[in-house]
Amino acid sequence: MRGKVLTGDDRRAVASAASPRVADEHTAKRHMSQRALRIWSIVHRWTSLVCTAFMLLLCLTGLPLVFGHELDILTGDAIEAPELPASQANARASYDAVLRAALAQHPGHVPQYMIWEPDDPLLPIVVTAPHADTPPDDTLSTTVDARTARPLGMPPGKGSLKFVLLKLHVDMFAGLFGKLFLGAMGVVFLAAIVSGVVVYLPFWRKVGLGRVRLKKKRRVVWLDWHNAIGMLTLAWALLVGATGSINTLADLMLEAWRNDQLAQMVAPYRGQPPVTVRASVDDAVKTARQVAPDMIPSFVAFPGTRFASPHHYAVWMRGDGILTTRMLRPVLVDASTGALTDARELPWYLKVLLGSQPLHFGDFGGMPLKIFWAAFDVLTIVVLGSGLYLWLTRHNRGKKAQRG
Question: What is the mean pLDDT of the chain?
């Protein structure tokens, strides 16, 4: 009846009738939560098992690559700029002279790239090959003194430790398939991290973040260390895993750029014969500097290479800041006349790629950042190794329980 005031007996009767329903709802939620947790646990277990071996490979090969320059010094492959008299210290040879010096070392070769590493601007690297479209693994590189145009030697080649580590890390000597496969493993690794956090949440709420129960059995201690170090490296592992997966798409992104933006810029040259007499490299760089006066040349791609067109130099300019040194802008220069053809900002996907590279390699903050990156790499190896140990010893726990 509307407006009726419930007596004490009435309220108890209503509560008694409602209690089973409320209890059933709580039980259902608890069971659902346990079921969801089991599903997340299965996801974590199998994603971890699928990617662990490959993530260990990437961590073990990536660790020495963090110290790439130091590795070259250790193995005797480093090329250092020689000391010159004060009168020559500020001298600079022309880019054409540098190019001629490199080509003289490899008769019959054509130039592919002239590269200036941010850490060694005095030591440009000239990449040459029998043909402009020769694959990267079949090219030769020559380091030249930018002050005197004197060849100083060849950077580490195919037989070097650094080359082997880099190939294992990038594509496992399997080309594009290897890159895409490792990229897929990176995505699986991210799924393992996220599912691991979800599985860890109940323990976190109950016991506390990062607690290690040292008085428990050895397997429990291993599990706690696995979880605690995993949470410590969480942000770093997500960052490096995501950026690494993005980097494996570099070849596909470059091809998309060639078929889209580059094709638009060079459309007026379609059908014209290849360039036979090239303009000066110095003129091409000078033109690019006029277009992007606040940027620095990163590398010149010669006509016919993947980063240019058959009729153009592509002068790739870079930023001058710590975080912008890998942000590039291509300037297309007519290879016959040295005149500007076009210069555009890169599409968003290449900007994402270029922005992910310093975040993945940790090479934009000097030695302190390298040490930080290496330390978290080692911790990630511990997480992967402890997870593998817990999986391999899972049957031992059941055997001990049966004996007990």
Answer: 88
Which residue, among 152, 126, 124, has the nearest Cα to 140 in the 3D structure?
126
Same domain? 257 vs 349: yes
Angle, to 10 degrees, between the axis of helix 281-291 and the axis of helix 95-105?
A: 140
**pTM for this predicted structure:** 0.85
Q: Are 84 and 92 in contact (CB under 8 A)?
A: no
Residue 74 clears pLDDT 80, i.e. is over it: yes
- Residues 345 and 258 reside in one and the same domain: yes
Distance between CA 315 and CA 301 in Å, rounded? Answer: 6
Within 13 Å of residue 37, how many CA atoms lie on the same side as its CB? 11
How many domains are contained in the chain? 2
Q: Identify the H or E element spanning 142.
A: strand 140-144
Q: For residues 181, 182, 184 and 190, what is the CA-based torsion angle, rounded to 10 degrees?
A: 170
Average pLDDT over residues 157-168: 89
The set of residues, in sequence order, having a beta carbon less than 8 Å from that of 280 and lying 6+ positions away, is: 95, 96, 338
Strand arrangement of the beta sheet that strand 120-129 belongs to: 151-153, 140-144, 120-129, 110-117, 296-301, 312-318, 328-334, 340-343
Can you give the residue range of the structural domain that contains 279?
Answer: 88-166+249-361
| Distance (Å, whole) CA 320 – CA 323 | 8
Position of tokens 């407006």? 3
DSSP classification of residue 346: P
Span between the terminal Cα atoms of the chain, in Å: 64
Strand partners, 129: 110
Cα 125 from Cα 68, distance rounded (Å): 16
